[in-house]
Amino acid sequence: MKVDPMGKLLFLLAWITLLQGCCMCLPEPPKPQYGGGVVRNADFSAGLRGWSAFGYGSLAEGSSPAGNRYAVATNRTRPYQSVSQKVLLQNDTHYTLSGVVKNVSSGVADVRVVVKAAGDFIHAGGVAAKSGCWSMLKGGLTTVSGGRAEIYFESNSTADIWVDSVSLKPFTKEEWSNHRDASASTARRKTVRLQATDSAGNPLPGAAVSLETVRNGFPLGAAMSSEILRNPSYQSWFASRFTVTTFENEMKWYSTEPAPGREDYSVPDAMLEFARSHGIAVRGHNVFWDDPNQQPRWVQGLPYPQLLAAASRRIRSVVARYAGKLIAWDVVNENLHFSFFERRFGWDASTAFYAAARMLDSGSTLMFMNEYNTLEQPGDMAALPARYVQRLKQITGGYPQNGAGMAIGLEGHFTAPVNIPYMRAALDTLAQAGVPVWLTEVDVAGGASQAYYLEEILREAYAHPAVQGVILWAAWRPQGCYVMCLTDNEFNNLPQGDVVDRLITEWSTAPRAGTTDAEGFFQAELAHGEYKVTVTHPSLNTSVSQSVKVEMGSGSHYFIQV
């Protein structure tokens, strides 16, 4: 598909501006993105024209000493009483949505934007707005059918809400796809020049060059169950596709210590050996889980001293056992939604666990927060992207020095219809943390559109430069998978499996061959990854093979001496 250069430029400039405003306390609102899109009087320069009070509230006009004008939803007694505007939505269209809000209450207020359409109330985004400053709110939605709709804001506080710089910008599915493809090309591919030379360093024109992919640079994997230890078909199917995995349940506390002091690591040990023997990297999942219902039964009712001893034994046991053998740890799972250990040990329990894990595994292993609904559900205020970043900063003590070695894990348990514009907005916000981002447990609830939405999610993740890997939550078991399977019980692909195979092929570089030019150069556009490059030249009657790694930020000029 062709990409309109000016449209692409405007899209990228708006994206960069949005990134700059995310997660910051803004002294003044920036201008509306895309000029407000379909929103009229988006910057309130014409006062309140085009805007009205929602939910029998009151609306006033405000202005700053610098002359900026905005709307004030005042005299609020209900969460939904705020400022609103009626708009006309198009059929089957992606919309990006943004705005800037100010919380004038004390503390932090949850503010979200809602689109009322055809009797439905669509949560399109939210922000944890700090007191006394302007906060950027980002989100989006996808329409199925068009028609009249109304945008409004709501908050868990009844204090006044100030609103400015509202934008609702439509993109056709084709426009969205074109922008995504352009971003993926920039983030995941590079044009490289290989120069063949003789032993004296002279260029070799007319040398034959062939390239073969050794390993794809983008980690795409799937969860693995212990069934793989006794099923050769499962082993063959899995190892031929994936470069990274997470054990579904086998490394969790309730699996490795079902009774106090009775530890058994035989199953995860065997799974780790299988992965190692096939060159598959492993994420450690998990050291602790903050959900009280996911503790080993014997842990749940322990008094403080015994719980402290048990938790200390757990982290020393599992992290030290696998130190240096894993690429990541989910140290405290789901500590935005749950707080089992914080309630027992204090508000800084997670901070202590992350520090201990880093001491026990001090290499390059990434330490992840791992959370659900941050990408999937804009209506879940507990898991807002801004709230995720805030929690990450609490754990690390702020950025950038103490954030080293930390990473963002986004589970990604989606239901149809998937809000792709919100997913992109959430990734934009999270990218500002400056740490690696992974999608760690991706699945889509069953239905006719399951495979379609899986492909959309994976393409969106692949195109975003902050995302450094994806794990599918599709561990095979004969009685069925958690939510989404990729194959049947004979390991024939289901439509979801076909999507995965197609993308693995698309995101890899097919074998290439050619000859060097008059200056000994061979040029090719390659997906990031590791390649075996073989160069032969008739006059020298010899060939040389060399490993070449193509990565973001690395050079693009390689010399091969024949």
| Average pLDDT number | 92
Question: Percent of residues in beta strands?
Answer: 25-35%
Instruction: Please give the order of strands in the largest beta sheet.
Output: 13-14-15-16-17-18-20-21
Enter the CATH topology name of the largest domain. Answer: TIM Barrel
- CATH homologous superfamily identity of the largest domain: Glycosidases
Number of helices: 13
Helix and strand content put the structural class at alpha/beta
Indicate how many domains the architecture comprises. 3
Biggest sheet record = 8 strands, parallel, barrel
Radius of gyration: 26 Å
**Known CATH architecture of the largest domain:** Alpha-Beta Barrel
Contiguous low-pLDDT stretches (5 residues minimum) are 1-22
Question: What is the end-to-end distance?
Answer: 40 Å
Taken from the alpha-carbon principal axes, the silhouette is: globular
CATH class categorisation of the largest domain: Alpha Beta
Helix content: 25-40%
> Based on DSSP secondary structure assignment, what is the total number of beta strands?
26
